[in-house]
Write the structure tokens for this entry.
Amino acid sequence: MSPDDKRVTPNPLIEQMAADLQPVRSIKFRDGLILVALAVVVTVLAVELFDGLWRGAFAGQASAFFVIGNGLLLILGCASANSVLKMAAPRVGNSHDGPKWAMAMAAVLPVAAFITLLGHDHGMSALDDPYGLTCFGAGLLASVGTAGALIYWLRKGAPVSPNLAGLHVGVASTALGSVAYGLACPIDGVVHLGLWHAAPVVVGAIIGRYALPPLLRW
């Protein structure tokens, strides 16, 4: 048998499949982090342009509730965004437990608000907050840029759990959006922060879980 007879005949099916393949650039976590950071910075600048940031927050006039409330939302937003960025490039050992603990910490804020309401004779009157719906709607609107950046990043990758990815996108974007607009809100009571600044995150989680997965499947 000659050496030519030992050659394996190329499989035309494999050649056909390989012909359509194109090299792609691998995604890097650092690039996603920069993308999200830019989205948040642009959002803060937009808040400054249209509403103006509350200068008292930077002059020591804010209460402890202002710092704690926005700090909890910031931690939640960063933890969820970090999880989303990692989901774009799944690998063995990736853990997404961080957002769960961050959600538990952030939940202290609305719980404290409801306990405060129950501790007053006319607690339900605090729900008649003239600025409540404004902060709620603005927090949702301020999340659009970050949500777009995270969705774009996931569509560049290959998330294996679109439902979980959508949930984290919704939580991350609304938490960071609420913080961005919160820098313009001078109302720093625990009830206002716990209800109207945390409510966008709940809505974002629902939208992210049920509306975003079709956009993330590949």
In short: The two ends are 48 Å apart (CA to CA). DSSP finds twelve helices and no strands in the chain. Residues 64-87 form the longest helix (24 residues).
